[in-house]
């Protein structure tokens, strides 16, 4: 079952209109229409909302039972790449508090990790004033190679700010104004980063890099 069939059939099964579905997952009716015609595919955060709303796995929404996708963060899971699925269908990065604390031992244990995460969420919501950036509700443990994008400087050269081998906290968020660009937020022990990009992380642009 392709994504376009899956979403339309699941929507109709619940007796919802495109407008009602759009309201529940915080997108426009036009976005739902494009999913159902196969023109576009929901991004990771929207897939998670749809998965919860329809009570089906992200794999089912994508229409590929052979595709391995983390049921929590939506990242592809590659066998042998350190991202294998655990018993609950989630990748190891979503169980990554321990890994994060190993990267930054000064954080402490699980309780301190959760407090640190809430501190970062508060800072994203109060210290940064990025137009169109929605309120941050959650941060996920993410591998550096997944979020370490290459940004073009005014000089024309390109630069990466993060470490492929490190572990960070981050999320992907829909712009409040719609459009085809998403926000990516990333944080470490000493920085907050906000960027935007199009589908599949293409055309990244750095918005804010702030030292804590």
Task: Describe what you observe in this structure.
It is a single chain. This protein is of the alpha+beta class and 212 residues long. The protein has 2 domains: 3-62, 434 Repressor (Amino-terminal Domain); 96-211, no CATH class. 33% of the residues lie in helices and 17% in strands. The chain contains 8 helices and 7 strands; from the N terminus they run H-H-H-H-H-H-H-E-H-E-E-E-E-E-E. The strands form 2 sheets. The chain has a 5-stranded antiparallel sheet. It has a two-stranded antiparallel ribbon with strand order 2-3. Helix 1 crosses helix 3 and helix 2 crosses helix 3. It is globular and about 50 Å long. The protein starts with a helix and ends with a strand.
Class by alpha and beta content: alpha+beta
The share of residues in helices is 25-40%
Please indicate the percent range of residues in DSSP E strands (runs of 2 or more).
15-25%
- Principal-axis shape: globular
Mean pLDDT: 82
Major sheet characteristics: 5 strands, antiparallel
Number of spatially distinct domains? 2
The number of helical elements comes to 8
- Going across the biggest sheet, name each strand in turn: 1-4-5-6-7
Q: In angstroms, what separates the terminal alpha carbons?
A: 46 Å
Spans of 5+ residues with little confidence (pLDDT < 50)? 79-87
Rg result: 18 Å
- SS elements, strand count: 7
**H/E topology pattern:** HHHHHHHEHEEEEEE
List keywords for this structure.
212 residues, alpha+beta, 434 Repressor (Amino-terminal Domain), 2 domains, five-stranded antiparallel sheet, two-stranded antiparallel ribbon, 8 helices, 7 strands, globular
């Amino acid at each position: 079952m392709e994504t376009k069939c899956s979403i339309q059939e699941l929507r109709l099964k619940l007796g919802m209109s495109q407008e009602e579905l759009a309201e529940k997952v915080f997108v426009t009716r036009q976005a739902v229409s494009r999913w159902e015609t196969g023109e576009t595919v929901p991004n990771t955060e929207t897939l998670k909302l749809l998965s919860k709303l329809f009570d089906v796995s992200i794999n089912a929404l994508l229409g590929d039972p052979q595709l391995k996708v983390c049921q929590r963060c939506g990242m592809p899971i590659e066998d042998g790449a350190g991202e294998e699925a655990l018993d609950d269908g989630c990748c190891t990065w979503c169980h990554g508090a321990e890994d994060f604390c190993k990267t930054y031992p000064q954080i402490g244990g699980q309780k301190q990790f959760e407090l640190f995460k809430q501190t970062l969420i508060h800072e994203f919501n109060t210290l940064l004033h990025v137009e169109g950036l929605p309120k941050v509700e959650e941060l996920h443990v993410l591998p550096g190679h997944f979020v370490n994008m290459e940004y073009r400087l005014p000089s024309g050269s390109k630069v990466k700010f993060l470490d492929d081998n490190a572990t960070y906290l981050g999320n992907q968020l829909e712009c409040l104004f719609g459009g085809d660009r998403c926000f990516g937020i990333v944080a470490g022990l000493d920085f907050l980063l906000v960027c935007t990009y199009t589908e599949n992380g293409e055309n990244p642009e750095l918005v804010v890099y702030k030292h804590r």
